[in-house]
Amino acid sequence: MGSSAVFTTLLLCALTARCSADGVFWHVTDFHYDFTYLNGAESGKICDSQTAGQPTPNDPGNWGDYLCDAPWRLINNSVYAMKAIEPNPDFIIWTGDDTPHIYNDKMNTDVVLAIIGNLTDLLRSVFPNTQVYPVLGNHDYHPKHQMPPTPNTVYNATWNMWDVPNWLSSDVMNTFVNGAYYTMQISPGLRLVGLNTVYYYTNDKVTAPTDGNTDPAGQFAWLEGVLQQAKTDNEKVFLIGHVPPGFFERYQGKSWFYPEYNRRYLQIIAGYADVIKGQFFAHQHCDSFKLFYDDEGKAVNSMLLAPAVTPWSTTLAGVGANNPGIRLVNYDKNTGDLTDVSQYYSNLALSNMQGSPLWGREYSLRETFNLPDASPASLQDLLDSFSNRSSDNFEKYYLYNSVSHDQSSCDGSCKVAQLCAIREVDYDKYQDCINAATSGAKTAQVSTLLSFEIFFPFVVAAFGLAA
Ligand SMILES: *[C@@H]1O[C@H](CO)[C@@H](O)[C@H](O)[C@H]1NC(C)=O
Ligand SMILES: *[C@@H]1O[C@H](CO)[C@@H](O)[C@H](O)[C@H]1NC(C)=O
Ligand SMILES: *[C@@H]1O[C@H](CO)[C@@H](O)[C@H](O)[C@H]1NC(C)=O
Ligand SMILES: *[C@@H]1O[C@H](CO)[C@@H](O)[C@H](O)[C@H]1NC(C)=O
Ligand SMILES: [Zn+2]
Ligand SMILES: [Zn+2]
């Protein structure tokens, strides 16, 4: 931080008597409001999620069902829980996916916009004086995922909803209506960049890379420009987005980005690792993180993946459901350094039995894992501890990965998929990681010098898999 920034901070301290550098913000995501949800008492139509591949639950609860998207009652309760737990965050980030997982023929653009409007109204009424930074998810468009890299009714109408005090400022209209991305200064020295990474999702067929099109809506070039300017201005940056790069840790080999876009995203992070202080993403509905390395193998950046409010069990085989979660992030206002993450949740099964949700803290990175902060170096220490057999950190992490819904244990290929997804965002390196873990476990018994020197220590160090 430059001396003028220090001076400004001191001056603000003197004027406002708020000298603390401790900052805090909410990250909330993936509400997936199912407007068709009715309680079990009302027979017939219950929740519409079964139309997207799930069986019909027999007796969906008042507060939601693990086979359904979220009823309004749960969504409303989650936002009021945020208010009860931390009523004065510096800001809120809201990373999209507002509509339910139902077939396109049951949706249309008006319904998408009505739901975005419902959630906008709720956040505004519960947090009328709080700055909200939203982005759109792949379910915030009709037909779902097919976001065009050009102006359209959804960006336009959403812009009109979000161009309100404490939300998007009018100077970001141009990038928002053209591509649904923007940048705004959070505070002196700290900048937010809201990305539309739905463009990079392989389900978005209108943005598939071609010879003539490698940068949908010009977002990559724009992002590099913003990061370069931030570097020049000595600002730090928080990146927020919906669909993450890399792999899904609960499903081996499952990635979201087109390979070209994954590479480009990684290159940009590597080029500006000293400017970017945090990446806050969503979409997987699970609680995890990803590390980004420099050429020497040092962790220089991280991505924190926040779990969903919807408990919906995905149709991806074996992945399962989650409890509803909301997340508080602590950071240093002067440096942008992340100091802690506290995950809050309510146990949905218990909520339905008790008659109302009870929200509590599930874990905090600092307290639960005994870390000094939430920096990339600390997250690397956490990842290393996942291979320490005397530590139960991985077991805890794996429980929290489903927001304490999945109580099973995870070893063998389940654990390999988890660790490789955290460690390798690059597609080739991820495959090497999977291969090394798998073949390494076999070749460890083969006493060739090669397998011993290369695979055995790697497997022991990275995974603790060798018998
Ligand atoms: C939303 O939650 C608040 C706080 O619990 C409650 O007072 C209000 O009635 C709820 N509204 C709806 C529509 O559920
Ligand atoms: C959502 O918005 C629509 C359209 O404005 C409205 O009719 C409906 O009552 C809203 N639902 C909730 C839960 O606020
Ligand atoms: C966006 O909305 C404005 C009015 O608010 C209208 O004039 C314009 O044509 C719209 N553009 C698109 C692409 O829908
Ligand atoms: C492994 O975990 C145990 C228990 O937390 C701890 O005492 C030990 O220092 C750790 N070992 C390494 C190599 O970090
Ligand atoms: Zn989602
Ligand atoms: Zn999504």
From TrEMBL:
SUPFAM superfamilies: Metallo-dependent phosphatases
Domain of life, source organism: Eukaryota
One CC-aspect GO term: extracellular space
Positions annotated to bind Zn(2+) 2: 97, 138, 242, 283
Cofactor info, note text: Binds 2 Zn(2+) per subunit.
One Pfam entry name: Metallophos
Protein name as annotated: Sphingomyelinase phosphodiesterase
Signal peptide: 1-21
A molecular-function term among this protein's GO annotations: metal ion binding
Residues at which Zn(2+) 1 binds: 30, 32, 97, 285
Subcellular location: Secreted
Family (UniProt): Belongs to the acid sphingomyelinase family.
Domain Calcineurin-like phosphoesterase span(s) in chain numbering: 25-286
Coiled coil (UniProt feature): none
Keywords: Disulfide bond, Glycoprotein, Hydrolase, Metal-binding, Secreted, Signal, Zinc
Cofactor: Zn(2+)
GO BP terms: sphingomyelin catabolic process
Organism per entry: Branchiostoma lanceolatum
PANTHER family, A to Z: METALLOPHOS DOMAIN-CONTAINING PROTEIN, SPHINGOMYELIN PHOSPHODIESTERASE
Domain (Sphingomyelin phosphodiesterase C-terminal): residue spans on this chain: 299-437
Keyword GTP-binding included in the entry's annotation: no
